[in-house]
Structure formats: structure tokens, C-alpha cells
Amino acid sequence: MAADDALNEGDTRNEASSAPAPALWAFGGVIFTGAFLLFQVQPLIGKYILPWFGGGPGIWTTCLLFFQVMLFAGYAYAHWLSGRALAQQIKIHLVLLALALLTLPITPSDQWKPGPGEEPMGRILLLLIASVGLPYLVLASTGPLAQAWFSRANPGRSPYRLYALSNVGSLLALITFPFVVEPSTTRTMQVNGWSLATVFYIGLFGWVAWQMRSIDGETSNDAPPKKEAVEPAPSLVWNVPLWLLLPACGTVLLMSTTNLICQEIAVIPFLWVVPLALYLLTFIIAFDSPRWYLRPLFVAGFLASAGASCWALNKGVDLSIQKQLGIFISTLFFGCMVCHGELFRLRPPSHKLTAYYLCISGGGALGGLFVSLGAPALFQVFFWEFHLGLGLCGLLAGVLWLRSVWSASRMQLVVVCVLMTAALQALTWGLSQQMKRIQTHVSRTGGKSLYATRNFYGLLKVNEWPAYYPGGTNALTAKRDLLHGRISHGGQYVDPALALRPITYFGPQSGIGLTLTHVREGGAKRVGVLGLGTGSAAVYARAGDRFRFYEINAAVEHVAENHFTYLRSARDRGAEVDVVLGDGRLMLEMESKPMKFDVISMDAFSSDSVPVHLLTNEAFEIYEKHLSPGGVIVINITNRYLDLAPVMWAVSGHRNLHLRIIHHWPNSQLEPWFNPTTYVLLSPREDFFEQHTMKKASLASHETFAKQLRKWLKNAGMGSGTDGQLTLDAALQRLLETTATKNPGEEVMIQHARQIAGTLFIQNKYYANYTLDSFLDLPIDKKTVPVWTDDYSSLFSILK
Description:
Blueprint: H1 2-8, H2 24-49, H3 57-82, H4 86-102, H5 120-153, H6 160-184, H7 187-211, H8 236-264, H9 269-288, H10 295-315, H11 321-345, H12 353-378, H13 384-404, H14 410-444, E1 448-455, E2 458-468, E3 476-484, E4 487-493, H15 511-518, E5 526-530, E6 546-551, H16 554-562, H17 566-572, E7 576-581, H18 584-590, E8 597-602, H19 617-625, E9 627-636, H20 645-655, E10 658-664, E11 677-683, H21 692-698, H22 702-716, H23 728-742, H24 747-757, E12 761-762, E13 765-766, H25 772-777
Parallel strand pairs: 5-6, 5-8, 6-7, 8-9
Antiparallel strand pairs: 1-2, 2-3, 3-4, 9-11, 10-11, 12-13
């Protein structure tokens, strides 16, 4: 009833038409259901194939490109079909519905999984065409075709509320997926459920098409409609380019904003859905009624938020992720409100309905093609498409506002002209300053750019800088860094005398450094590394060792082999080092026999984005198949925005793996060549962690420190009575005196515990300053999260 009321509002039936029509609820049901299924399948199929293609942001960008192009194809089909005789329209569409039915269910075949080094974008597009292509085409044509049939069956009634209804269905689909569908169902259930719902939709639309046979063939949606509140336009010649430009600009903002967010956090449906849902919300608001789009309010909001985006981009990774998300999402909302609000003001009468929708979808497809194909080829240094979208949106808003007041009073024209000119100049200045800062950053710091490229997997740069080095006294030497997006992924000194020093995230005291040094007690080892980077892990390779790197990005292999020397030097020392191109998890899955690795290291970040598919329960099942008895899995969980330790605790508990956390916080003044790191080490056996060096290193973890302290106190007969009022430092000193006679081997460990108790703190208080009782009563900060799986991985509780 609510849908019928919305459709009836403001409309009056043409009493002269005697032709019966399908019920209003049927048109509303078809359009709503079609829109719901159209947008539910987007995150559904994207999530399904995410582990197959590396889990990077490019997967969703490619999916969006496919959806935009297929939306255009559906609208083009509807536009072409609406020009045929009604009887012919019904027959053709019934045949297409039947063909779409035959392609269900849409479960992608495992044959679409890429092979080693295979180009991903083309394969993803072919996979999507084969699995969801025809159903998606039918769903995409639903809105314009059903509205055209509605206009034909109900001459004089406005169909624009039906468009708003379709957007409500789309928005509901996007909201329910991350909050209802994804957490409560498996991927297989999602695909099968969607396919069953599509069967219902095809049946309903088929029934509507069958009912349309009774409409008089001469009745047409070209019949003169009642007057609509459409803003007069000077000429269709000017309107058609704007029908393309405005939605293209909105799509550029949508896709470039999503790219920015996913590059820095993680590639999960929730972070796909939020921008897309806001994008659709602006369509709903703008197309519901002209009164909702208040041009001065939304243009001013866009200009303010665009300025805030320039500031956020200048702040870079130093700005909290919550602030970055708020700023970029606000900019997307206001920018799309401007684009879609202006687009609605330029809407035509209903007899040009399908042409109008065709242009809107065509503009969206053009924007998608530009971001997916044009921008990576044109912009090698940064994601300039975001800046371009901001500039184009501001320019279009200014031009259209000036056009609307051109014939108004001279004072109004002057005021608008002055305000928009000043605002656009400010926006242009902000964007140009940010672009200039990025382009000149390397040269301003005395460095030089050696290599830059951009492909499906993101932005890759090699820069050379002056840097301090071990053994130098305030002296500088050349150091190369590999950057993925805005994050450093390793480095190396250029001087051959320093080139084999492990630095950045791979220092000797880091989790990976300690593991590669002490595994197999220094004997020959087999190591599998997911994520090549600069090849820094190979600095620990010795004669007789075998290191196998799995790297999905061919450009990274080129960089490691040609701009850094870690791999070459390891081979020269007699180690066997090879690189397998392809997603690490998928390539391990394809290995013909267990690799029996002593160490499996996962360090495959994209910018600062977490590779979710490499941290799921299914991923660890694959790792364990290729792990030797007593082998160690090493996970780099160093991250600015996410606390990944709870995820690792969950998987270790689920899979009965022993776990240690190794923190390394170097003094940035004394050792600037090291980065702070946090590694998680997991093993089916505890033997490796019982080594003295590993026990000492793991004390930096609060849980391990407290556990070891209780063990020492028990062995020494301490901890009761007045002992509990001692400071932790005093208690450790007494333990040291007692242990010197009872267990001399523990002296070094307790001395180390005293040292780190003076540097670590909880609740703004150093360990050493707590009383023994109060320290042992402190709750272990150990969040509980569900085990991540390929079906569902939540980030809400681990945001820093």
C-alpha cells in the first residue's frame, strides 16, 4: 500500500484511456525487486571472487566497471526495445527472460581462477560476463523498460517516482548485505539464494509482460502527458552532453573515493557498500522531488568538503582513519548530490524517458572506463582521478548555477558570479597545492625518483633518499625505498658495504628476523614468503637455504630484481631463490605436493590495506598443509589503522596453534633505519618458542610478560603476603637474587624483563611502577573477535 500511495501521489489517470493495465503493485514490485537484485549481486559476486585475484582494491574497481557498462547495455536494450511495436517488445523480452533463467545459478566455476602471472582485469570481466552477464542485463533493463510500459499503459502519469522506488530497492540491497546477508550466510548460500530470488523476479516480470498484451497497440508513451515540473532547458544539444557529464563525474567520485579508502584499510564489502550506498542515496533524494536539492546548500557543502579533502590528503597517513573516512565520504555525498541534483533539474518529459536514462547510464559507464582504464594509464604518480573529479564537479556546479541566473537580475548574477569564481579559485588552489606537494616531495627532501608505475594492483614507486646508516656518526648515505601507495614496503642502502644490512621492517630483532635466524637452529631452511616487496627477507638466506617468494604483481618482481640486490646477493651466496608470480594463497593451493616450509611468512600488504583473504581460517588451512612439523607461520600485523592481534588469537585458538607476539620498537633517534614492527608467530608445536632468544623477544607482549612473571614467582616461592606490595621493579630485583642460586640460566631473562618494564606502559603507567599485585590484576587487553573466514571478516571491533 505504501508503494501504491507513492506511485499515485501527484498523478491522475487519463480517463480517456480504456485499455486495462497490469496492477500498480506489479510495476512497483518488478522495479523494486529488480533493483534490489541488481545491487545485491554486486558485493555478493565481488566478495565471492575476492580470494581468487589477490584481494586488492582493483577487484572491486573492475567489478564496478562491469556493472556500469552492463547497466548502460541494459538501458540501451530498453531504449531500443521501446521503439518497437508493443507486441514485438513483449515477445523479445519474454525470450530474454527465459534465456536469463537458463543461466542460473550464477556460481562462478573454479576454472576461472587465474594461473601464475595471468592478467587479472580481463579474466575478471570474462568471469562476470559468463556467470552474471545475462541476468544482470535483464535486471539493468528493468527500470527504464518497466517505466516505459507503465507510461504506455497509463498515459499522463509521471513515472519518476518509480525511478525513486528502484533506488530505494537498490539502497536496501546494499545496506542489508554487510549487516544481514554476509554475517549470517555462506557465500554458497548467498549465490543460491540470489538465484532463487531471480527466478521469482523473472516470473513476476514475465506475468507483467503477458498482461501488457491487452494494451492497445496504438497507445503509446508518446501520448501527450500532463504537465511535469521540469526546468526548461535552452536546447537538447546542451542537455545531452550534461546528461553524460554529470553522471560520469558522480561515478568518478564514487570509484576514486572507494579506491582511496580501500587502499588504506582493507578490501571488504562494507567499505565497498558505504560509498555506493551514499551514491545511491543522492539519486533517491535528488529524483524524489525538486525541492530536496537546494543548490546553494549542496554546492557550498561540496566546496567545503572538497577543501577538507585537500587538507586530509596533505596530512596523509598521519591523520586518523576515522577522520579520513568522514572527510572523503562527506565529499562524495555532497559531490554526488550536486551532480544528481543538477541532473534531475535537466530531466526531460516522459516521452524522452529511455533516452534520458540511456545517457545517465552511458555517463556512468564512461566514468567507470576512465577510472578503471584511463586513469592508471595517465596517472603514474598518484590517484589524480580523485582530484579531477573534484575539479570537474565544482566547474559543472558553477556553470549550471550561472546558467540558471543568467536571465535574472543583474545583482543576483553578479553575486553568484563573484561567489562561484572565488570558491572555484580556492578549490583550484587547494588541489594544485596538494598535487605540487606530491610531485615535488622527493626532490624537496634531497631525493630522486627512480621508478614509478601503476597497474591493477596499485601505485608503485622507487625513490632514493639521503639517510642515516648504522655505524655512521650523523653521516648520510643513499638509501632506496619501495612505496606502494603512500606506505613504505622496504628499503636498502645503495652502498655495497651496507646493502646487506637488514633494515626497515626486517631488522634482526623483528619477528621475521628472529625467526629466520633461529629456525632449525641456524641450519639449512626452506622458506615460503607471501609478498616479495624488495626481497628483504632474502638477506637471511644462506648457502643451502631455499627461499620461495610468491608475488602477485609482476611490477614488484621487476623492482626487486632490478632496483634492489637482496635476491641477487642471496643467489650469489649459494641460496636457492625463486619467485612465483600469482596470489600466494592461490599458488600454494595449486602446488602439486606439500612444500614442507620451515617458515611461511605473510607480508603481502597493498599500501596499508590488509589482505583479508590471506588471514582467514581457509588461508591458514592451506598454510598448515605446506608447513613442516614444528614449522612457524610469521604474520606481519604492523598497521596504522587496525589491531590485527585479536584476529590472530582467534585463528590460533580455532586451529590449536601456539602463538607469540614479537614487538620491536627501535629508538627512532639512535636507529632510524629500523621501523617499529609487530609480528605474530604461530606454530603447531611450542618447541621453537622455548628457545631462550624467542622467550626473551616475546616478553614485550603484556600477556607473555605476565604469564612468565607468574611462572618465575611460583618457582621462587614469591608473590604472597608482603611481596605483593613490592614495585614490579623491586620484585624483579628480588627474583634476580633468588634465581642466581636456584636457576642461573634465567638471570638474563629476568634482567631483560627489568629493562623492558622500564620502557613499556599500560594505562599511562610504566610496568616498573606498578605494585606486584596491581600489575598481576591488570586485565589482559585481548579483544575477542570471530574467526575470519572467506564468508565473513569484520573490521568494526579492531579499528584503532
